[in-house]
Amino acid sequence: MPDTPTGPTAPTPPTPPIPLAELLAREELGLRLLAGPAQADLLWVHTSEMADPYPYLLGGELLLSAGVLLKEPDTYVARLVEAGAAALGFGVTPVHDAVPQALIEACERHGLPLVEVPPATPFTAIARAVWRLMAEARHRELRRVTRAQQALATAAARPDPVPAVLHQLAAQLTGRAALLSAAGEELHAAGRRPAPEVRAALARLTRVVSPTTAAASPAPTSATDTLGDTHLFAYALGGGQGLVLTLTTGRREAGDHTVAGIAVVLLSLLAAPHQGADAAGRSAALVRLLLGADPADVAPLLGGAEHWTLVHARRSGGSGPADPLTAGALGAALGSALVDAGRGGDAVKVLVPGEDRITPQPGWTLGTSAPAPITALDLADGQASRALGRAVATRTPLAHHRTGSGLGALIPPAEAEAHARALLAPLTVTLAETLRCWLSLHGSWDRTATALQVHRNTVRQRIARCATLLDADLDDMDVRAELWFALRRL
């Protein structure tokens, strides 16, 4: 069955797994395999003397123990296997003079690698060796990914970029790469044609990620499967055309998924039609804006859309700032090549032509503006920023700017704006924005601090300052309502 990212998964470290055989080969440790297979991948090192460490294991551990509370070896080993432990390292002395025979037999029976740790080798030395091996593997992976990224980027700059990128991807992963249409037709391919049974498995995998045929809603963006010794991958491309990238490889190495992800970004940008203008048009628009041209005169160069939606985005789950490639992938998924990747902790900004409602994107937290003409993008920028802050504070994947409606729409805009400016005149821009955010989050100090990316005490100080400058009781619901009305008009 194909493996698709349909739900929460156990956390994995940002490093490639370490083969147990590499650790056993470190002669200075004196480790010896007593039972089970030598083929195992180590993700972590954990030491525990609990009788049942199952609740504290994530899976993939080399568990180190001296057997202080070892009573029932078979039950103990069965629980480790159930928890997904990769191997058991058993230290002899001071508790046991030798590894218990019952433990050896249990590990052999359950297929769990059992490693004897000699008295002269402390557990910390084993952990240090594993981290060193991981660092070396990570360095190799980064070098490989960097080389692949450079090769793919060079291919994307060639006159016929899509076939060139596929050819380079197939070469980097030593396999076959193909670009399929929404109907499953092979548009371009590179690498040796797979066997019929592999093609059939790929077709099934493609249907998993294809938005036109997938049963799930929304469809997953990637899926993997194996058929014998062949590894199969399918990735949905952004841009709304339903294009799918498929890969088949005879081996699977650390960094393969990252290399494939780079290719997905490039192919999404190359194959998907830009809903705005081409690169030359966008460059001309930028030059004219810098030279002081009226935004309304520049708008036709950006594709002629009457209205635009501005999206602010941050990576979800503390995965760090976005780089240009991941930001470009987000733009491709939203159907726009107009992307500002930001710097450091800044939000990614995507200018999307049209008034279509933005949908959530996996791995991102989004805030969107109301559709706005090209002359009002500064207003849309503030709307998107506030919507993103609300999404981050409430831990929702997407927040839209709330357009004015209801009783507020009954008051003439000019009168409402004049009243708002007079009422809020004592406040600085920072204080007004803090007050707006605090009121929108029902006076929550913690959520406001999260949305504004400041300390909660800073929020308290600013709100107290607002109350003083406005000479208002911010605990009074009538006062809050009037301030909220005013803030919505600015």
The major β-sheet equals: 5 strands, mixed
Principal-axes geometry comes out as flat
Give the uncertain stretches in residue-range form.
1-11
Question: Roughly what is the average pLDDT, rounded to an integer?
Answer: 82
The N- and C-terminal alpha carbons lie at a distance of: 54 Å
**How are the strands of the biggest sheet laid out side by side?**
2-7-6-5-4
Helical content band: 40-55%
Share of β-strand residues? 15-25%
Count of distinct strands:
17
Q: Structural class given helices, strands, pairing?
A: alpha+beta
Characterization of the model:
The chain has 16 helices and 17 strands. It has 490 residues and is of the alpha+beta class. The strands form four sheets. It has a five-stranded mixed sheet. The chain has a five-stranded antiparallel sheet with strand order 9-8-12-11-10, with helices on both faces. Helix 2 (73-83) links the parallel strand 5 (61-65) and strand 6 (87-91). The longest helix has 34 residues, at 123-156.
Task: Describe, in short, the structure shown.
With 490 residues, the chain is α+β, with helices and mostly antiparallel strands.
Task: Please specify the SSE layout and strand pairing.
Layout: E1 18-19, H1 20-24, E2 32-35, E3 41-42, E4 44-47, E5 61-65, H2 73-83, E6 87-91, H3 101-110, E7 114-117, H4 123-156, H5 161-173, E8 175-180, E9 186-190, H6 196-209, E10 222-227, E11 230-236, E12 244-249, H7 256-271, H8 279-290, H9 295-298, E13 308-315, H10 324-334, E14 339-340, E15 348-353, E16 364-368, H11 377-394, E17 398-400, H12 413-423, H13 429-440, H14 445-452, H15 456-470, H16 477-488
Parallel strand pairs: 4-5, 5-6, 6-7, 16-17
Antiparallel strand pairs: 1-3, 2-7, 8-9, 8-12, 10-11, 11-12, 13-15, 13-16, 14-15
